[in-house]
Amino acid sequence: MQILITKIASFLNNIEHRNILIIMNNHEIDYRIFGSEMQCVEIELDPNETVMAEPGSFMMMNDGIQMNTIFGDGSQDQGGIFGKLMSAGKRLLTGESLFMTAYTNMGSGKKTATFASPYPGKIIPIDLSKMGGKMTCQKDSFLCAAKGVSVGIEFQKKLGTGLFGGEGFIMQKLEGDGMAFVHAGGHVEERELMPGEILKVDTGCIVAFTKEVDYDIQFVGGIKNTLFGGEGVFFATLRGPGKVWIQSLPISRLASRIMRYGGMGGRREEGGILGGLGNILDGDGN
To answer: Which of 40, 50, 184, 201 has CB 3.0 to 4.6 Å from 247, enough for a Cys bridge?
Structure first.
């Protein structure tokens, strides 16, 4: 009996310290993020590894990396021409381009490709394998990802959320088990919500949340708040459990201020009820 117990303990110890091979569908990539306010991400590619990037995000790359513009998101389960058309159509609905650019290391050693965020803010690295294989993000937030990550759409099932949620019925969905990178404006706050915990957020400040988080909208309430509060008529509620990312400067808010102070008219005012309703109808967050 003592010999049997010893063998079992030895076996368990070997399992604990053994490197287990995990079969992944997406390419495995390493990365480094540089900068503080205007960030860029450097992706390290082994031979034959590929990173998919949004058109216009390219900054620089080593010699030996081949660029290839493709139709759709480059995920491995698009199912032929029809699947590619569906994938590209979904990306178009989320504000992204019909095409993406694949950067593949065709050399014999490690190479790097660097991509930059389009406006001041932060780049958020997301390991989808640790997030349950799915993330919901704001539209137009995708920057780049390992080949095989699917970039699609997430319809808001609740009518009120779709009409008044700031981002409309459609948000962006990232699926897979590889690394993905999204960008956000200003400072980004990462919060871990406990089961049942509720966080109330400006609709335009939501960057991303994991699939367990329940997303809804809530009326601000109060005549003075609605007419003169300056914060819109609705805010979002995020209910845990799960992880959420919140940005301090949505691009819609930044663009609104630039247009207003630039004498270009800008968006309807946020503070009044008419302005709030106007922003709801055109699908813009605060």
So the answer is: 184
Tokens of 263: 């004498």
pLDDT in tens, 92-140: 555 556 678 999 999 989 999 999 988 889 999 999 999 999 999 988 8
Q: Which domain holds residue 192?
A: 24-282
CA-based end-to-end distance of the chain: 70
Distances from the Cα of 192 to the Cα of 13, 240, 248, angstroms: 33, 8, 17
Establish if 32 belongs to a structural domain: yes
Name the token pair of 200: 């109330």
Q: Is residue 10 part of a domain?
A: no
User: CATH number, domain at 143?
Assistant: 3.60.160.10
Question: CA-based Rg of the chain, rounded to a whole angstrom?
Answer: 22
In a domain, 17, yes or no: no
DSSP assignments along the chain, one per residue: -HHHHHHHHHHHHHHHHS------SSPP-EEEEE-SSS-EEEEEE-TT-EEEE-TT-EEEE-TTEEEEEEES---TT--HHHHHHHHHHHHHHTT--SEEEEEEE-SSS-EEEEEE-SSSEEEEEEEGGGTTTEEEE-TT-EEEEETT-EEEEEE--SHHHHHHSSS-SEEEEEESSSEEEEEEES-EEEEEEPTT-EEEE-GGGEEEEETTSEEEEEE--SHHHHHH-SS-SEEEEEESSEEEEEESS-HHHHHHHHHHHTTS--SPPSSSHHHHHHHHHHT---
Q: How many folded domains does the chain comprise?
A: 1
> Does residue 19 lie within any of the structural domains?
no
